[in-house]
Design brief:
By secondary structure, the protein is mainly α. Among the domains are: 18-209, Growth Hormone, Chain: A (Up-down Bundle); 435-495, no CATH class. It has helices at residues 2-12, 19-40, 46-53, 57-85, 87-106, 111-139, 145-173, 178-181, 183-197, 205-209, 213-232, 242-264, 278-307, 313-320, 325-330, 334-340, 343-360, 374-397, 404-446, 450-467, 470-507. The chain starts with a helix and ends in a 19-residue tail after the last helix.
């Protein structure tokens, strides 16, 4: 009888992941970190890169755009390619490709070669992000999913955060080329972990032959065109540019091909029917908004510190790192939190904290410096981790295990698209609101503002004492006043941008009530 009870107890006890499983999870997380890190690692080094390869500021933006364009195409393709080549073979191949193109970028001496290398890097890196999430979902038992989710989720937060910091330090202290050479030892470690942690699988070339080629073509054309339109539209003045017009036509054609593939193929390249699942669809919408928030604030804060506070890349990076502190503080307890508490509540608290961080930053002035961002960065760090970690787990729990790869692709694609869309909308908002505030303040001054007249008189007297020429002193005073107005207008535009980001977080709040509720610690769904 006792033996029967012991046997029953042993059978009821959930099995733990093996050491090999954890090595596979570590490999996936390392690959995802490498890919997300390289999205932004060149941002701090762009001036030096442009100077050495002879690129203008506008041309240099393609160094980042090329990576994003190819990465966002590869992310949804990863699940299909995994089924064709096997997970181990596919990831080792992409790691080797990533290493090759990293070295190619580091040795590049022309803009064309750099962009080609970044496109190759992005294509290989895009495969590492969703496959990491797939490994967590398929290799870990339900009761250990929170630990794996934490490891993967940290890459989504720390990668974009650490990229500019590491890139800035390498550029200032060694050479910008080490932004790419750094990937070699990391890739060697990654390939070693993949060889140990993942079993070898047979290729299934029949899936390759019978693939949804219309959908694949549409995906490549549509998503890459959309990314370039969003990234370059503001700089090219949108539809005043023939490039943007033709890319928009290509984008529509690509999405049409995806729709045809959905109707004609039994296994479409994008499993859009998963979006019909209300819980998974809500995860995608919240992930898109938070992606816009993460990439948006990673753009706004360093830009403010650089343009208005006079900080260099390394100093701005130290402020950005503050939002990573909560991740390290919560890391030991986060798996238990994910396994014990309602994930919907955690997402709700995270959205409120993110809104609060944006609200704090709506009170910036021309005198604001790094320490004025301490509170908002810490709030933002807690908000990010409390939203992204549960969302990552919910994206997997909302679908069956067999759909994990496709769901991971859609989730990570939505987050990256959200980041690109957020940067575009913020660029448009900043441009228009700064012009608006500039015009309003100029109108106020023209309406015989006594304060403005007193300021003009003071500046004119100051310049007159230096030059002795009344005409020159008055011109200098007018120039100073125009600069002061432009600076004030820019600060007000930053405040508006943070206000809009905060509203986007609040707008997602009702979606948490659609998310699936876990009924047991094992992660079963209602």
């Amino acid at each position: 009888m006792a033996e029967a009870i012991a046997t029953q107890g042993s059978a009821d006890k959930p099995h733990d992941a093996t050491l090999t499983d954890w090595i596979a999870v570590a490999a996936g997380s390392l690959g995802a970190l490498l890919a997300t890190l390289d999205i932004s690692i060149t941002n701090s080094a762009l001036p030096q890169i442009q100077g050495q390869i002879g690129a203008t500021g506008t041309e240099g933006t393609w160094i980042a755009t090329g990576y994003l364009m190819s990465e966002i195409v590869m992310i949804p393709l990863a699940a299909w390619l995994t089924r064709v080549f096997g997970l181990r073979r596919f990831l080792i191949g992409t790691a080797l490709m990533f290493t090759f193109f990293s070295m190619f970028c580091g040795l590049s001496s022309s803009l064309g070669a750099m962009i080609a290398g970044r496109i190759g890097q992005g294509f290989a890196g895009g495969a590492m992000i969703p496959t990491a999430q797939t490994i967590v979902r398929t290799r870990l038992p339900p009761h250990q999913l929170p630990i794996g989710t934490t490891l993967f989720g940290l890459t989504a937060i720390l990668g974009p955060l650490l990229g500019p910091v590491i890139g800035g330090w390498l550029t200032e202290n060694i050479d910008w080329r080490w932004c790419f050479f750094l990937n070699l030892p990391i890739s060697i470690a990654l390939i070693t972990l993949l060889l140990v942690g993942l079993p070898s699988e047979r290729m299934n070339l029949e899936r390759f032959i019978k693939a949804d080629w219309l959908g694949i073509l549409g995906l490549a054309v549509g998503l890459s065109s959309l990314t370039v339109v969003l990234e370059e539209g503001q700089r090219e003045h949108w539809f005043d540019s023939l490039l943007i017009i033709w890319l928009s036509i290509a984008m529509v054609a690509g999405f049409f091909l995806i729709a045809v593939g959905q109707l004609r193929s039994s296994t479409p390249i994008l499993r859009l029917q998963l979006v019909i699942n209300g819980s998974f669809g809500s995860v995608l919408l919240i992930g898109t908004a938070v992606g816009a928030g993460i990439y948006g604030t990673a753009y706004l804060v360093p830009q403010f510190l650089g343009l208005l506070s006079g900080y260099n890349a390394e100093q701005s990076g130290s402020i950005m790192l503050l939002s990573g502190i909560p991740a390290f503080l919560l890391m030991p307890v986060l798996p238990k939190m994910l396994g014990r508490y309602d994930l919907r509540v955690m997402v709700g608290i995270g959205l409120l904290l993110y809104w609060a961080s944006c609200f704090v930053d709506t009170r910036l002035t021309t005198e604001s410096v790094g320490h004025d961002f301490v509170l908002s960065q810490l709030l933002r760090g807690f908000g990010q981790i409390l939203v992204m970690m549960p969302l990552s787990q919910l994206s997997m729990r909302s679908v069956d295990t067999r759909d994990a790869g496709d769901a991971a692709g859609l989730y990570n694609m939505s987050r990256n698209l959200g980041g690109t869309l957020g940067l575009t909308l913020l660029g448009v908002l900043m441009d228009r609101r700064s012009h608006f505030h500039d015009d309003v303040m100029r109108e106020g001054i023209l309406a015989n503002s006594q304060l403005a007249q007193d300021q003009m008189a003071s500046n004119t007297a100051s310049y007159l004492s230096q030059s002795g020429d009344p005409s020159t002193a008055q011109l200098q005073a007018f120039s100073q006043l125009a600069n002061d107005i432009a600076q004030q207008a820019l600060v007000m535009a930053y405040n508006d941008a943070f206000y809009v980001l905060g509203l986007a977080m609040l707008a997602c709040f009702p979606l948490i009530f659609i998310l699936k509720k876990r009924t047991t610690q094992a992660g079963l769904r209602k």
